[in-house]
């Protein structure tokens, strides 16, 4: 039997093996093949990680053996030996999933150090301080990452030693001080673990590999995966790489760089480095790094070589690269390269530039931009007039562009819980760490006091498209008391501040923000997307204002106009309430008469805004009691307005109470009980259409949509009412007006009997919100309370209300499409649930052959790009 290979030397892999070796491993292999100087080592595959979980969190014998073999080969290649006291091999252990997950997984450096090898390193380098500094860093990192002893406890020890010596910086500690630190660190280890710090490098290695595997399932990684559609069964690879040292003196250093500016996309090397430092110093943002251009003066040879290799890597990968490098005593090494994370602006500029430079085709460029990223371009910037009047209270680094205004909070938990209560929040932290991810997601903007352009906050914010100002050292923060001081003024939790992520400015007041526009690179890129996509994109819009916004963002029609949203207006709600509490049909008709002109005006506004574009208007959907007052005082007021007794009104309201309103008297069921509601709505739609057609000459074909249908006869009943009224009005008007009557498919029974339903429906629009709710049997409003437990336990990996459950709900959609087409070959098919703006769901809808998706106006560009990508991908699969 052939033995499965779980471990690959860098020289055995290549870039196409990303699924198996992870992104980092595949690129290390590729760089090795290209002859770029890479410290050698090996990659333990993602399949080994999956097997680790399958085997009950145990690393099997065969994997251990293969690791030991690869280690022996690495010893041969480097001429160093693991645990050798004269010439020890030291390695780094890093995670590397298929796609990069910044900050989610953990890294251990300097592995292989122990009480003996540290002396070997000291002798070899002639630098005892360096050796002990490396050892203390290793003990700290290993104990934190592999064992789980809090990092803070080690930092406290380091601070103590510095204090004793009366110095401020780590660099002020000499070899003797660091030896003391090592002794104290090891004591702490014994105290915490009840055993000595492991001296056997192989034991250190296996614990670290296991820690990386384990970190795949830490809560931060699970949250990140859910936010980024990464399946849990991918697993992570582990990279074991021989160490090179950037902290070996003034001719050593370490840095990160991008081949283009990740904030703007400008074509120029953009990076930072620190002389005499190790990798984590740059990423953690603890010391402030130098711009890469300075390297030209400090180490010109290395600079030139670096620039040549960077250019080669970009040309090779046909994309902007994000590289990590280390210079060890004048010799340059590349530790990593990957396609760099970038802001949405930069992503678009780079994609368009690469096409214009002849590197990519338009279709390749379209696949380079993550549709969800466009979101950050579709959100407000500051109102220019208000901005002119505002004076910044501090300036930091413009780490992730955009404008944000909100109340300031000092912890991720508080930011998250305030956001959930509907507040717009800004998260301020000394520096962020992966634990802060949920607060960062909730925040409109992120402000950090420490850290450079590649600090955790900056990288994560850019990835999420959230505005971020980093490294704002002018602000003095007191995290404990939840205050900060800027320009001499103290700000406390809950105060309004505003951030400009494009300039780095921080303002101590609320500044109004304004809606964005699609122009420049964005406009050009979206034109390319429109050229290739076949799926149409409409918007869910209920008002002329939303309709206009949707058209500006490229919507080709309205796929869902929820008429009930208009009912909530202050001037309408009395008439709506009157209709609901009516005792008989006459009373109800009188109330509906009052609503008719208002609804007609709404529809006129929408038709005018949409011109010739199609508009689907859905009839009343929610349970009626949603419109009724709940407070005593409001009930009293209504009873007075309506001239009925308080008690009478109260008992009517009580009688409308439902145990399961989501599955109660709503949707078309309301029309079955009260046909006059559908009569009024039909009248409003048809009269509005005739009016606008006459006045403006637009070619309007009203699309009337009946919600919550589960039975063909039910639809027929409502449709007959619509047709009767519509035909009467049209005949009288003398205007030639065509119209369509269709239905939502949002009750599972409708999907299963779609062939019958299609006999009565000119079109289907999938209401995937309700279809998800009813297929899973859990409420849209309550599922938030328990879904988290499901994510934690890996039962569900994502929120099915945001991303379509293709295996279950998707099957119903597919079934309904097939059955619908069997009855009515050319039936128009769309979807208007939340999933219409979710890229992976859009791809599914393209593949099952829908004609359009409809989503909120702000997600229209996302859906346009997702539809283009779906078309390109399905073409390439044929
Ligand atoms: C749906 O159910 O998917 C839908 C679009 O309707 P609503 O969200 O208004 O119930
Ligand atoms: Mg619905």
Automatic annotation (TrEMBL):
Substrate binds at residues 562, 618, 746, 767-770. It comes from the Bacteria. Residues 520-870 form the PEP-utilising enzyme C-terminal domain. The active site is at residues 456, 832. Keywords: ATP-binding, Kinase, Magnesium, Metal-binding, Nucleotide-binding, Pyruvate, Transferase. Belongs to the PEP-utilizing enzyme family. Residues 423-504 form the PEP-utilising enzyme mobile domain. This is Pyruvate, phosphate dikinase. The gene is ppdK. Its cofactor is Mg(2+). Mg(2+) binds at residues 746, 770. Its EC number is 2.7.9.1. It comes from Clostridium colicanis DSM 13634. The keyword ATP-binding applies. GO terms for molecular function: ATP binding; kinase activity; metal ion binding; pyruvate, phosphate dikinase activity.
């Amino acid at each position: 039997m052939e033995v499965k290979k779980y471990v690959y030397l860098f020289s055995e892999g290549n870039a196409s093996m990303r699924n198996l070796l992870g992104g980092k491993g595949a690129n290390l292999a590729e760089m090795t093949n290209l002859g770029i100087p890479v410290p050698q080592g090996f990659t333990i595959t993602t399949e080994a990680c999956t097997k680790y979980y399958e085997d009950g969190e145990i690393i099997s014998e065969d994997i251990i053996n293969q690791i030991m073999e690869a280690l022996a080969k690495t010893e041969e290649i480097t001429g160093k030996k693991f645990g050798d006291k004269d010439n020890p091999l030291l390695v780094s252990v890093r995670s590397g999933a298929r796609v990069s997950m910044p900050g989610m997984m953990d890294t251990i450096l300097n592995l292989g150090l122990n009480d003996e090898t540290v002396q070997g390193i000291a002798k070899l380098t002639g630098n005892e301080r360096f050796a002990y500094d490396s050892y203390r860093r290793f003990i700290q990192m290993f104990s934190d990452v592999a064992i789980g002893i809090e990092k803070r406890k080690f930092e406290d020890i380091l601070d103590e030693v510095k204090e004793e010596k009366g110095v401020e910086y780590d660099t002020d500690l000499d070899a003797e001080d660091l030896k003391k630190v090592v002794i104290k660190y090891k004591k702490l280890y014994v105290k915490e673990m009840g055993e000595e710090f492991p001296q056997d490098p192989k034991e250190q290695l296996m614990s670290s590999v296991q820690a990386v595997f384990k970190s795949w399932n830490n809560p931060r990684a699970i949250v990140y995966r859910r936010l980024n559609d990464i399946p849990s069964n991918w697993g992570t690879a582990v990279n074991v790489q021989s160490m090179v040292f950037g902290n070996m003196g003034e001719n050593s250093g370490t840095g990160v760089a991008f081949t283009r500016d990740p904030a703007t996309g400008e074509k120029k090397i953009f990076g930072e480095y620190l002389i005499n430092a190790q990798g984590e110093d740059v990423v953690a943002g603890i010391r402030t790094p130098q711009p890469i251009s300075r390297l030209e003066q400090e180490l010109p040879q290395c600079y030139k070589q670096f620039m040549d290799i960077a250019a080669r890597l970009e040309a090779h990968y046909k994309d902007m690269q994000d590289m990590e490098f280390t210079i060890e005593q004048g010799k340059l090494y590349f530790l990593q390269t990957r396609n760099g994370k970038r802001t949405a602006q930069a992503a678009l500029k780079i994609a368009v530039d690469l096409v214009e430079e002849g590197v990519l085709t338009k279709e390749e460029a379209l696949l380079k931009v993550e549709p969800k990223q466009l979101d950050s371009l579709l959100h407000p910037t500051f109102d220019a007039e208000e901005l002119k009047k505002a004076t910044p209270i501090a300036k930091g680094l413009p780490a992730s562009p955009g404008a944000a205004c909100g109340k300031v909070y000092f912890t991720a938990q508080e930011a998250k819980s305030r956001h959930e209560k509907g507040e717009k929040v800004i998260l301020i932290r000394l520096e962020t760490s992966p634990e802060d991810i949920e607060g960062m997601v909730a925040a409109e903007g992120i402000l950090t006091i420490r850290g450079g352009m590649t600090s955790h906050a900056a990288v994560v914010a850019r990835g999420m498209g959230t505005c971020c100002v980093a490294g704002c050292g002018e602000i003095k923060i007191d995290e404990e008391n939840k205050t900060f001081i800027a320009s001499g003024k103290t700000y406390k939790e809950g105060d309004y501040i505003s951030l400009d992520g494009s300039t780095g400015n921080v303002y101590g007041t609320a500044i109004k923000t304004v809606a964005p526009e699609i122009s420049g690179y964005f406009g050009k890129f979206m034109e390319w997307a429109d050229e290739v996509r076949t799926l149409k994109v409409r918007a869910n819009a209920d008002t002329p204002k939303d309709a206009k916004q949707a058209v500006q963002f490229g919507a080709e029609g309205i796929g869902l106009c929820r008429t009930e949203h208009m009912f909530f207006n202050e001037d309408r709600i009395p008439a709506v309430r009157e209709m609901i509490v009516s005792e008989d049909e006459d009373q109800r008709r009188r109330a509906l008469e009052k609503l008719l002109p208002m609804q007609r005006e709404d529809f006129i506004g929408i038709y005018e805004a949409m011109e010739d574009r199609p508009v689907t208007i859905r009839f009343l959907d929610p349970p009626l009691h949603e419109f009724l007052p709940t407070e005593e005082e409001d009930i009293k007021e209504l009873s007075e307005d309506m001239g009925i007794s308080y008690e009478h009104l109260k008992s009517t309201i009580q009688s409308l109470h439902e145990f399961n309103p989501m599955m109660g008297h709503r949707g078309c069921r309301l029309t079955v009980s009260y046909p006059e509601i559908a009569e009024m709505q039909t009248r409003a739609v048809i009269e509005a259409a005739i009016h606008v057609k006459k006045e403006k000459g637009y070619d309007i074909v009203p699309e009337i949509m009946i919600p919550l249908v589960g039975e063909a006869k039910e639809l027929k009943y409502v449709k007959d009412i619509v047709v009767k009224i519509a035909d009467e009005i049209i005949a009288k008007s003398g205007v030639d007006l065509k119209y369509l009557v269709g239905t939502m498919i949002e009750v599972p029974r409708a999907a299963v009997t779609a062939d019958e339903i299609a006999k009565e429906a000119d079109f289907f629009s999938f209401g995937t919100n309700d279809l998800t709710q009813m297929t899973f049997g859990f409420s849209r409003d309550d599922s938030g309370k328990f879904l988290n437990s499901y994510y934690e336990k890996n039962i569900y990996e994502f929120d099915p209300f945001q991303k379509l459950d293709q295996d279950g709900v998707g099957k119903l959609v597919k079934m309904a499409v097939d059955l619908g087409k069997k009855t009515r070959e050319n039936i128009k098919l769309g979807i208007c649930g939340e999933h219409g703006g979710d890229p992976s769901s859009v791809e599914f809808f393209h593949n099952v052959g829908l004609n359009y998706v409809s989503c909120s106006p702000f997600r229209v560009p996302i859906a346009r790009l997702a539809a283009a990508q779906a078309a390109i991908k399905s073409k390439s699969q044929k």
